[in-house]
Structure formats: C-alpha cells, structure tokens
Amino acid sequence: xxxxxxxxxxxxxxxxxxxxxxxxxxxxxxxxxxxxxxxxxxxxxxxxxxxxxxxxxxxxxxxxxxxxxxxxxxxxxxxxxxxxxxxxxxxxxxxxxxxxxxxxxxxxxxxxxxxxxxxxxxxxxxxxxxxxxxxxxxxxxxxxxxxxxxxxxxxxxxxxxxxxxxxxxxxxxxxxxxxxxxxxxxxxxxxxxxxxxxxxxxxxxxxxxxxxxxxxxxxxxxxxxxxxxxxxxxxxxxxxxxxxxxxxxxxxxxxxxxxxxxxxxxxxxxxxxxxxxxxxxxxxxxxxxxxxxxxxxxxxxxxxxxxxxxxxxxxxxxxxxxxxxxxxxxxxxxxxxxxxxxxxxxxxxxxxxxx
Length: 355
Description:
Layout: E1 8-9, E2 34-41, E3 44-52, H1 63-67, E4 70-72, E5 75-79, E6 85-88, H2 90-103, H3 111-124, E7 136-145, E8 158-167, E9 175-179, H4 197-212, E10 217-221, E11 229-232, E12 236-241, E13 244-248, H5 259-270, E14 274-278, H6 282-290, E15 294-301, E16 305-314, E17 317-320, H7 329-341, E18 352-354
Parallel strand pairs: 1-3, 9-10, 9-16, 13-14
Antiparallel strand pairs: 2-3, 2-8, 4-7, 5-6, 5-7, 6-18, 7-8, 10-11, 12-13, 12-15, 15-16, 16-17
Helix pairs in contact: 5-7
C-alpha cells in the first residue's frame, strides 16, 4: 500500500455538522465527522483508512502511555472568500513531524499519508471549514507507539491519526505573560525542538502557577542561567525594539521551529523591517522597556496566529506595553497573513495548498 488511491473510506452515517453551534466552539473539543488512521507494523505502513471519528481500542500496556513515544503536529485549513479551502504550509509540518519522529526512534510518515491523506480527509469534511475570519479548521496529526509491552525499548508498532476540529479565535484579547525563572521547559541536547507530548505535560504545573497570579502564558528562559528568552508557552515570541524585530534563535534546538514564526519573519522582511534571530536576554527586554524602546511584543503560533502581549511579568513587577491600536505592526502582520491564507492577498511565497 503506497498510494492515496488505496485509502479505504467509510463514511459516517449521519453528519454532526448541523447540530454544531459555531458560536459555542470550545477550542479542541468539537471534532469533524471523520479521521484518518494508519498503522505501522512489520516495518511498513499499512491499513490506511478514513473512518468516522470515534474512540479506538487500546491495550493498558500500550507503550506510548508508559514510555512517552508520542509526537504530534498542528496546522490549519482556511476557507477563502471565494469558497475554496487552503491548507497553510503543510509540508513544513511534515518536515517537523519527521524530525520529531527521528529524535524519538519512530517511523517517518510518508508524504502520501500525511499530505495526500490529509487533503482527502479535509475534502470529505469540507463543510466543517467555515467561512469567516474568526473560523478555521485546526488539524491535529498524532503518532504514538502502539506495542502492548511494559518494557523500556523502542516500540515495533505505531499508529498515526489525523483528526480535524472547527475552531474560532484562541485569544480574544492581548495577553499577560510571565517570565519563568525557576522551572525549565527544555535543555540543550534535549527534545525542545520537537513537538513531543511530554514537552507540554512538563509545562502544565508552572503554567498553572502563572495562571494563579493572573498570567495567561509563560515566557520560558534557558535552563542553565534563566538569562535568555526562549519561547512563550505554546508560541514563539517576537519583540519590537527601536523598530527592529528580535526573536530567539532556534539554533540551540531548545525552541520549536514554528511555521507561523517563519511566515511572520518573512512578511516583516517583505515590508522592509529588520529582523534579528539571535539570543535575546531578559536584561535586554527589561532595559528596552525602561528606556521606552520596547514598542510591541507578541506570540506566534498555529492556534493563536498572533497574540499581542500587553504586559510582561518579571521579578514581581509588570512591564506594561503600549495599547494595541490600528497602528500595531503585530496586527498589520496578522492581517496580511490572514489575507494570504484566505485568498485576499497574493500568495507570493507559495504557502497555500488548495484542497
């Protein structure tokens, strides 16, 4: 089996779409009618099918549960004003997922399953990609070890799933973030550059503590000295200092290489802004704020797209940023990115893939 034409399709008897209320979408809790499921056994991919979304049987000894071989991706499809559906840069997600797979000794996903299978799945559930700027389809590919074995070793069997979910806006207003100086998300030589399930589990307790203090997200710092900015919760982070965009470099391999990040960097450069990808110290951000040079800060990620930051907490004090208004460059970049994804602005970099 090595072609999308071989994918078996079993359609849902009744669609859930008509019973779904678009105004009551809780991010990641409403799922489309179908999912793609593929199994890796005996050293090859087989049994690739699209079937009604639902529960799957598993062994209590499933190795992913015990030893953490589980990775995933996140991307979106958007409905254009003309009614077409665009996938945004899916090959970048495939590249990143296969890098994660290599790091965790897992089989790589073939393009025909990841890309072509995804397109086939979305086409089947295309009604779920709703019109309107606040709506999109979030797509979650996930790969996990599937051996029924309680033993610390690389699994022989894996399951790959693509599920889709109609979503609205993730953040409805600018966010408060807290610079984390005790807990650690990732270390050099570790798995910070992967989209591994464990990375997110590791972040939950420190994030809960931040929530209790009134912050929505953390800004993680380096594990050795807590002196350098890394990323913000589920997003990369960008700062505008004296009309220069600065964002932490991914060369340490402790930061996720974000597709939204890369796209916004390119759009900023297209507009003539200088963008520096380098180590960004906490001191630099604090000093820039004290000098009135920190003009904007924002998170960048698939779920949120652009999340303007209104305050940065550090050592018991909040650094307040200028209010977001029609002159905000972050919102300007977000508007252009959304325009490209929805067909209103020329896709000059070839980022969209038509479904």
